Every structure is written in C-alpha cells, then in structure tokens.
Amino acid sequence: MADSKRSLAIGVAYLGYATYPGTGVPATSYTEIEDIFKGSVVFNFSDANQIKIEIEKTPDPRWILNQKGDADSIEFAIPSPSVDDMVAFCGGKKVGEKWEQPNEIPNINMSIKISTQPYEGKYVEYVIVNGSVFGKISQAPGKEQSELLLVKVTKQTAATSDGTLKTPFTREVKKITTIPVTAVAISGTPKVGTPLTALPTPNQAAGTYQWMKKTGSETSVEISSATNQVYIPSAGDVGAKLSVRFTAEGSYTGTVTSADSIAVVA
C-alpha cells in the first residue's frame, strides 16, 4: 500500500535564494535561479564524529558518543552567470554589465530553498535557513563547455535575537497547489512573416500550444506543426483568422482558447 505522506524526490524544479533575515527562521520571499547546470546540485551532509569509550574484556565499545562533524553544505552551478548572479553569490558590484570583484572575500548569508519535480501531486522542499555563501568561477568557457559559477552554501546556526536555537534545515513533503489558467491572448500583427506570440494568464504558466486558423465562418482547424508559443504566419494564411489553444501543465491547470485575430494580410 502506497504511503500518502511520501513523494518521489527526483530532479530539481526550483532553486531560490534570499537574504537571511537573521531571526532564526528562513526568508519568506525568494529569487529564483532560472538556469541550474544539469546534475550540479549536490548535498554534502557530513558524518558524525564518534567518540568510542571502550572497556576491557569486550570487543565492542561500551559507549559511543556522536558529535557534530564537518559543517553540512549544498552546492550548485550556474552556466554563463549574469552580472546579478555574480554580485549575489560573490559580492562586489555591478557597473553596467560589468562585474567588479571585491578586494576582500565578503560574508554573505542567505536562506536557500530547493524544490523537486512534482510527482503524483506532491514534491519535496528543502530549506537551509541560514547559509554562508561562497561563489567562484569554477570552469572556463571552452569549445564544448560553458563558463560555470560554482556556489557553495554552508549551513550555519539559526538563532533568534535572544540566542534561542531554531532548526537550521528542513525537508518537507508538500502537495502541489494548482493554479488555473484563465485566458490566452495573441500579441502581434497578423501579417505574413511577422511573429505572433501567445500570452497565457498567468504569464508564467507552463503548457503546450496549438495554433489554429479559419476562413469565413468555418470551424477553426489546427495548423500542422504550429505548436510553439510563437507562430509566424505564411502566405498560405493570408485571409484567414488565427487563434491559439493553450493547455496548462505542471502546477497550472486548464485549457483556454484565444479570440480570433483579424485576417492575416500579406
């Protein structure tokens, strides 16, 4: 019998960071890192240091005391980081689109949230409450590889202002809350060679697209292979009215169809 309180933790669907508020609890609002290098997220959870008390006449220890070992940490890498990424994880400052490295290694404290891919309506969320952050460029660009920014987040004590200790790390199985998609609209001028873009509401909704067309009062028909968010009308579309159907996926739900566009012109 399946355990309803479990979820298959596989893949990384979300990784966000925020300034640690310094109150013994994690941040509440995070900035998502859009591009995480595949396979780069690593959990470095250390073993305990064991103190063994042995006595005569017995082959095994009489007592074993577990003490904290090395500090736990997580790592991840960002391919071809932006200037904002460099400032966030390495310190320094942004001058236009140039990153200027600081003269001293900065002390950066963040809350980090990681969420797994949804599975059967659930996902797993990991949070480091107070992490010491160090970032460095770990890989140079090459013919078959990109530059990488490697970020290491080391777990620190989480405590309130009066010194009360709070949990420094959490792992929680959560249910997916689906968000309904309410509409999809076409942006752009229906003209041969001019790109049209389908815009769902909410605009960050994930899903699939199917462009359609009709001439006169006939029923709309699907346009073969027109399944991207952007569609470029061709000469064969002249005089036809276009629409697009959007079917939500993941944490979004619903299928919506846009209003017909005006007739495509040459």
Number of helices: 1
Structural class: mainly beta
Mean pLDDT: 94
Q: Estimate percent helicity.
A: under 10%
Low-confidence region ranges: none
Chain oligomer state: single chain
Distance between the termini: 62 Å
SSE run = EEEEEEHEEEEEEEEEEEEEEEEE
Q: Strand share of the residues?
A: over 45%
Rg value:
26 Å
Characterize the structure shown.
The protein is mainly beta. It has one helix spanning 83-90; strands at residues 12-19, 31-32, 42-44, 49-53, 63-67, 73-79, 93-95, 98-100, 108-116, 122-139, 148-155, 158-159, 165-166, 169-175, 179-180, 183-187, 196-201, 207-214, 221-222, 230-231, 241-248, 252-253, 255-257. The longest helix has 8 residues, at 83-90.
Which terms would index this structure?
2 domains; mainly beta; 266 residues; 1 helix; 8-stranded antiparallel beta sheet; 23 strands
Fold topology:
Layout: E1 12-19, E2 31-32, E3 42-44, E4 49-53, E5 63-67, E6 73-79, H1 83-90, E7 93-95, E8 98-100, E9 108-116, E10 122-139, E11 148-155, E12 158-159, E13 165-166, E14 169-175, E15 179-180, E16 183-187, E17 196-201, E18 207-214, E19 221-222, E20 230-231, E21 241-248, E22 252-253, E23 255-257
Parallel strand pairs: 15-22
Antiparallel strand pairs: 1-2, 1-9, 3-6, 4-5, 6-11, 7-8, 9-10, 10-11, 10-14, 12-13, 16-17, 17-20, 18-19, 18-21, 21-23
Brief summary of the model shown:
With 266 residues, the protein is mainly β. It is built from one helix and 23 strands.
